[in-house]
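Protein in question reproduced for absentees:

***
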Amino acid sequence: MEAPPFASSTKTLPFRSASPSSLLFLPKTRLNFRRPTNFSVRASAAADSAVTLLDYGAGNVRSVRNAIRHLGFDVKDVQTPEDILNAERLVFPGVGAFAAAMDVLNKNGYDGGSNLFVYGEGSTLSRHFKENGPVKGLGLIPGVVGRFDSSNGFRVPHIGWNALQNEKDSLILDDVGSHHVYFVHSYRAMQSDENKDWVSSTCNYGDNFIASIRRGNVHAVQFHPEKSGGKISFLSPVYVGLSILRRFLYPRANLERKPTERKALKLAKRVIACLDVRTNDRGDLVVTKGDQYDVREHSKENEVRELGKPVELAQQYYKDGADEVSFLNITGFRDFPLGDLPMLQVLRYTSENVFVPLTVGGGIRDFTDANGRHYSSLEVASEYFRCGADKISIGSDAVYAAEEYLRTGVKSGKSSLEQISRVYGNQAVVVSIDPCRVYVKNPKDVEFKTIRVATQGPNGEEFAWYQCTVSGDREGRPIGAYELAKAVEELGAGEILLNCIDCDGQKKGFDIDLIKLISNAVNIPVIASSGAGSAEHFSEVFRKTNASAALAAGIFHRKEVPIQSVKEHLLNERIEVRI
């Protein structure tokens, strides 16, 4: 039975952190902290099918839990330190808010001084971590963890599917070969002479960083196995990420290594499937698609356009190779989202069998219900994370926060964007921008950033600015998309979903002018959205702009352009994608 809203289903340590950025696998492992270079590893054969999970309140631990169960194991949650000591297999989802994580470890007596089980990500095991000033780690692995450098043109956070370079036999990575795996993080540990014997694989993003370590039976990874769900091959039923967990859980199993069909080289461009979800006129939750945001059929009945069921479509897109699945609750701005139990169930059911990142948006803001109970936007987001979301998307509320910030020049810390990114990390927060094009004859006529557009306006105008809207494009706001994007980056957004009302549903291609403007203005990843009608539109947006990903909905729902066709086209165009 699912726990009631805002009630934890298990007793957890009093810590909330960013969305997990890695996993640490510990099969019955004893470590000595007082002599970090001379620790002992003790392993024993698994006597049962239970996996011990340390759920300390991180973002989407449900996905880790679901992946373990998918492989046929039960999950036992840590209730006491003794549970850690008695664990045959221990899995510890990683952290993003490092200083807060170390504070919990220290307060609970897990920072060393005696023989203990370690339950921290690779970063936690390091000696020093540079986040809001230097913070000491457990001191087990020599090295310093620092933030990626965005000054060289690489976007931070590092979000997406990247390639591994194996340094030595890691056992659990045997099935990965040269496939992409999913990363989402802003900090990384660097390889050095002191820690080189620990490193089992590296990844390149601006420079080489440690992607995984192995020492005896201890494994730690920076990427997300539970979200790296690509097939080993087109003919294989095995998925890359699950195979990593499987090899950890079955360390002595004779598992065949699968041949590599194609070598992953670098960070891939992402192809994202979007599902606009709302109730139809009979009260059923369905996937729909708007034509310039109008989701009703142009018929006598004027019924909601229905294109499928959300859970079924999400599972199909996962099998088809979608790199992410995004749910948008398009009535969330009108209703109390936590009262929308069917939408929460969609997330729960989807996360049981879909092992790629899930984003959900719609109605992420403060609410007061009919009984006068106040819910903060952080509580709303937390419930989405508990139900299976990896990232949440904020729309209207981010516009209001940006307007206030630009007006006062002060970060209040009270907006939904600031609260959620502070607790869960900016990599867990997407800001969805819904602009429409406004043509002007002279750029000096408006106070907002204007550009010379490729297609002139109805009266021959050569310039335009992009006005942001809220409440599903029902209200225009006095802020441009350029100004909004710059402001939300400063307020803590980790990614921008860039829509375009003018192009929505038109199938004539993405708004290249708009996407080029925004992707050149910010240092965080930008997802291009609205207007895709062919596979060629995807290669165009990746060739002509700095978009990190491209999203589509209707052409996938109607099977006009399959996801696999898009990826095959991009491969032929020599654009890196995950297959």
